[in-house]
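[SOLVED] Predicted holo structure with zinc ion

Edit: marking solved, answer below. Original request kept for reference. I posted the sequence and ligand SMILES and asked for the 3D complex as C-alpha cells.
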Amino acid sequence: MELVPLTCPVCREPLSVGEVLDAGTVSSPAQLLFQFLCPRCAAHALARAEEGRLETGSLEHGRFVASSRAEDPELSVRAETGWLDSWLGGRYRRFPAKG
Ligand SMILES: [Zn+2]
C-alpha cells in the first residue's frame, strides 16, 4: 500500500509530526509504538516513531501497519523498558509504557 503524507488514520485529516507527538499518550516501547489523541477528531490512534521517521496506522492481527508517513531528519527516538522518548526541534516528549 502506498503511504500518504502524515494523516490521522481515523479522520484522514493531515497532521504535522509535532502535532502527533504533542498528542501522544502511552507507548509500547519495544515496538516503537505510541497512542495519540487526534487533535482533529479526538479519536485514539496509533503511531510508530523511529529515527527520522514517523508513521500513523493501525494494528492488524497484532502487527502495526502504516497508512501514512512523514520523514523528518530532526526526529530522534529512544526506547527504554518503561517509556518511549522523542526529541524534535528542541522539544522533548516522553510517552510512558502502557501497563
Ligand atoms: Zn483524526
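OP edit: The chain has one domain: 4-96. Thanks to everyone who chimed in.
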